[in-house]
Q: What sequence folds into this?
């Protein structure tokens, strides 16, 4: 009997866990994050192409045809089946340049979005005229006003 109760409790816990996972996945934040990752991956490919195919050849040309990825210090040249031992500092420089370009592009995009949001808020604020809120009447003044109105009604009745 106890085995059956333990099995039932285990299934309920599994069901609860599965239900919690389902709720977690179906939340808007997780979906938004997934969309962000997918778009970010695509954006990364675009920026990488910009850096590798457009900017770096131009920078290399400005520096006299230097390809950063070819820059290295050779400790021992290759001989036979033994590859060369070298420090590839050019790749490191390339990655730094890539990072700076990506950071600059992201900065420009965030700046543009910020300007567009501010512009839209200003347009919305101008489109909807703000109606002034009625001043709140203190309780004693409201009561005195009611008493005055009641006295005036009694006077007109007589």
A:
């Amino acid at each position: 009997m106890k085995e059956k109760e333990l099995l039932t409790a285990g299934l309920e816990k599994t069901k609860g866990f599965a239900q919690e996972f389902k709720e977690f996945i179906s939340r808007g934040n997780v979906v938004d994050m997934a969309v962000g990752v997918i778009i970010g991956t695509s954006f990364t490919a675009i920026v990488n192409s910009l850096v590798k195919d457009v900017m770096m050849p131009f920078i290399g040309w400005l520096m006299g045809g230097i390809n950063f990825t070819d820059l290295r210090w050779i400790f021992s040249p290759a001989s036979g089946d033994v590859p060369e031992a070298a420090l590839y500092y050019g790749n490191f420089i390339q990655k730094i340049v890539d990072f700076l370009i990506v950071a600059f592009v992201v900065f420009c995009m965030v700046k543009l979005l910020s300007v567009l949001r501010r512009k839209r808020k200003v347009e919305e604020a101008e489109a909807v005229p703000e109606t002034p809120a009625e001043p709140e009447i203190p309780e004693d003044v409201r009561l005195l006003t009611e008493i005055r109105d009641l006295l005036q009604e009694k006077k007109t009745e007589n």
